[in-house]
Design brief:
The protein is an alpha/beta fold. The chain has 9 helices and 13 strands.
């Protein structure tokens, strides 16, 4: 069933990252651009429209390290004030957390903070999350968790990808973060619609594609207001509209996005740019 408005809105409040992860196309795309922060007037327009449509989730980050936006707390708080029933969350590598910033974030209206942390040793971590320091980042995230203490908010979790680590490594990672009372979620390492350099994982024969929940439920907004197909569209190859000129509703219900939705529901993935090579929506058949 088609949604008349997305239930999840992801917004690139700023466009830079301080890491160069092997599983991320950042260095070939966003890294080549000048640093930008989303215009406050545009951001307010987006958030205000969300409040009129009972959005379930608002994520003020996309293709970036959100903590590089020095006004991030302002963006978070406005989103929550206008959308008190929505879940406001960010994904971050956590390397920029100082004691001051940690307190500001914990005092904000953020609902969830998800840390991307790949590797149980210095060698594993720094080979996959390049430009970051294993011990420093691990310590900063750990201190953030401890600083939150027994509070219920924000919820905290560790996310990592299956990027070739051993089972013992995954076990070590779980044991460490679980000991601090934080869940660890391990996800498929995807090709991000063919945009990951040197991706060499072959899909098994017993898979099929299903209609993509990203396309059917979420909208992705760049710092300049462009709405792109999804979070795998690192090169802005499928731009659905621009929110400086249009509303979310107009773009979401526009002809271009609806053509993609119809093709997905009919299983015509091979006819679609990016979706033809993307492996996010593959599922095992037996």
């Amino acid at each position: 069933m088609s949604l008349s408005f997305p239930n999840t809105v992801q917004i690139q409040t700023s466009n830079k990252c301080n890491a160069d992860c092997v599983f991320c196309p950042y260095s070939h795309t966003e890294a080549k651009k000048d640093f930008q922060i989303m215009d406050w007037k545009l951001y307010k327009k987006i958030i205000d429209e969300c409040s009129e449509n009972k959005v379930q989730n608002i994520l003020p980050f996309l293709f970036n390290e959100p903590l590089l936006n020095k006004e991030l707390v302002k963006y978070i708080n406005y989103a929550k004030e206008k959308n008190p029933a929505s879940v406001i969350k960010i994904f971050t590598n956590g390397s920029l957390l100082t004691n001051k910033l940690s307190k500001e974030l914990l005092d904000s209206k953020i609902d969830q903070v998800i840390f991307s942390f790949n590797g149980s040793t210095k060698e594993e971590y720094e080979s996959s999350m390049k430009n970051l320091d294993f011990e420093k980042t691990k310590k900063r995230i750990s201190e953030f968790i401890k600083l939150r203490g027994e509070k219920n908010k924000p919820k905290i979790a560790i996310h990592m990808l299956k990027v070739g680590f051993s089972e013992s490594s995954f076990s070590n990672i779980r044991n460490y973060w679980n000991s601090l009372g934080v869940a660890v979620h391990i996800f498929k390492y995807e090709n991000r619609a063919g945009n990951v350099a040197d991706y060499d994982i072959t899909s098994p024969s017993n898979i099929k594609k299903v209609p993509c929940k990203r396309l059917l439920t979420q909208i992705y907004i760049l710092v300049n207001g462009d709405v792109i197909l999804c979070c795998a569209d690192w090169k802005s190859e499928v731009v659905l509209g621009n929110l400086k000129k249009q509303t979310i509703s107009e773009v979401w219900n526009g002809e271009k996005r609806l053509e993609y939705e119809k093709a997905h529901l009919e299983g015509r993935y091979d006819e679609l740019k990016l979706c033809d090579v993307c492996n996010f929506n593959e599922v095992v058949t037996d």
